[in-house]
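call fold(seq) -> tokens
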Amino acid sequence: MIPNIDFEIGISVYSTNFKGCGGKIRTQVKDFQVSEILSKKAMAAISREGNYAVYKLKKQGIDTNHSLSNIFKKHHLRLKSLGLKDSSAITEQFVYTEKKIKSIDSVSEKKYSIKRIGFVKKPLSKKDMIGNQFKIRIVGASNEIEKFNDYKKILNFYGYQRFGSKRPVTHLIGKALIQKDYEKAIHFLLSYTSKYDSAENSKLREKLSDSSNFSKLLSEIPFQMDLERAVVNQMIQDKNPKNALHAIPLNIRRFFIQAYQSFLFNKTLSAAFTDGEELFLPQQGDVCYDKKGTLGKFSNDPDQRLSIPFIGYAYYKKTRFNYQISKILEFEEVSPKDFFLKEMQELSNEGGFRNSSIKCEDIKANQNMLTFTLSRGSYATIVLREIIKPEDPILAGF
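ret:
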């Protein structure tokens, strides 16, 4: 049985027949560990001299964006990341400077630390990060866990954290943005609640649904709701929803659009699987990525991997998935051209392609401990979803 929250983020199928081993993840922060993997070429480019500094960021109990924001506020060092890591894990990732500035050796705070590991002649790019290595403990799993062997049959869905985890709202904000309904976008940001929210937060969000309460509620908005505070503060000043949205950092606003694209991708993958499409092996006429990450037409190369359109204003219709995508877009009452935002061009997104299945390697299962490596952009929680088959993913630690 598919949990309700899966449907909310566009996932309506399991791609394996494994009955599930049950159990929970993240009962302790140390139970979920992830480390980024750079390509050999990128690692070799890091040396003692160069124009741009490279750091190893280690953290727990805080997400990547807030870590880097805090570093900039406290130490005036602006860093970029190659990927986002959430707060519910012990994580290691590479961050770097984009400008030729004076760097510092290290920073150590309660929830995070950075240590400079060297320099590069030109800034790193997202293509330099080729994957993530995971070490995860599943508490309460049955002995069936060691029988799971369908690692090559897992669809490449976007995971729960892409949508806000226990408060899956990011894609709803994104949809409101592309539909130019800025008031609705703000309403979702401030007032959307789920059954997993605390009673205190739910009560506050209910009050925030009425804009006449903004002035008296501003001081009550907790520290962790920094986006909400920025938006409410701007709405108090000029009551202009568009200006209020501009109070949100650009990378977060872009993330909202990408979250809606991710929702559409999950819906497409679910529909194609339900319709019986072959999603694990490419066919003649398919668009594929090769082992170097280059996109092209199917050429009977065993290293090619099937890719599916990621909807944007440059959507490519000539794939066997246009049938499912067209039906989804019609139901959602959106079109590819909506992703070109004339009023907020900085949020426009042309779309692209994404692998249909997860590439999971170096797998080891020892009782309730799992280790494996995933290629860039794939989610460990989606692998775990197929193994655990949780009745309630959020209560199971997802």
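The mean pLDDT is 93.
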